[in-house]
Amino acid sequence: MALSVTETLIKPLEKFRKEQLGAVKEEKKKFDKETEKNYSLIDKHLNLSAKKKDSHLQEADIQVEQNRQHFYELSLEYVCKLQEIQERKKFEFVEPMLSFFQGMFTFYHQGHELAKDFNHYKMELQINIQNTRNRFEGTRSEVEDLMNKIRQNPKDHKRASQFTAEGYLYVQEKRPAPFGSSWVKHYCMYRKAAKKFNMIPFEHRSGGKLGDGEVIFLKECTKRPADSIDRRFCFDVEAADRPGVPVTVQAFSEEERKQWLEALGGKEALFHSFNRAIIPRPEGSAQLDKMGFTIIRKCISAVETRGINDQGLYRVVGVSSKVQRLLSMLMDVKTCNELDLENSVDWEVKTITSALKQYLRSLPEPLMTYELHGDFIIPASKYYVEVNEHSFVFNSVFKLQFPHENLTSCYCNLC
To answer: Which Pfam families match (predicted)?
Structure first.
């Protein structure tokens, strides 16, 4: 009896565990390894600076796309394997049990009548097993056909969703000066009818654990220009209850950014050269107010004191992280008053000049204004009569209004 139990029940189940479940475990290890590799490559790819050469960026994009296709294929195979093992359990587990009962009924002569009583159940179970096996073969064929269809047209087989758009985005989380900001992966969902935008922090290394989400009601969405931020595929979303405080997010690719902008009703950030317009500015809130004049005069005074004889004074740029840190401290009322740029060795002259240039670029309107842009461009034309050039520029400068005229005087003294 013990031998019969071993041969008919234990060994088949052990064989199923080793061959079928063992194969699935190996597939899972392979899938987990490729998952980690895929996310690491995406993280590395998204950290590429937009200042890299186009050839380098295109090569990186191609590599990520190839890796995505490979991961896509592996995911389909893994799902197919899981479905197969689920179906196999329905007969691989029950069939050894049936064999065990058959042997037990044969072994026990006194159980002959009992075996007869169970005969109808045994036959019904046998039929069900055969039907299950047949369904398994048919289901496996259907799954393989569906897998091939998904491979050919993945966009036509996306699951139905209650959201207008959903997916992973990197959200910029700003920190107090001088710590800059960090980018955190979120799973975002948007309902267009309610203009409700959900952001849930997600970390795949923690087993897909979700953090506390945040809900904002969308006011507007704006595409970030490439020269306004050091990352690609970025756009801003602004909440209705926090006007003027946009949240910067990053998509995984240009195509995904276009899809999000279309769903959110996003618009391009327009830069007008010859008329006044509202221009989405880079990070910071530079203004020509009292605080702005204090920042500019502090930088100019430091340059006059320490670097007036330096070669390439405004041509040589400082380290980006140091420039951003200095700007953050200058634009904070508390830290700005404590900064002594004239006597501090912590801040290089090139860092100060780069911060000054960045502040001017962040102004809502250029120093010479949009209105007078054409007047200043005309003297630069090679067809312009040289005799009238200086007088034309002189007259254009005097057309400037406060505070642009006042700030121009500061730069005249520096020059």
So the answer is: BAR_3, PH, RhoGAP
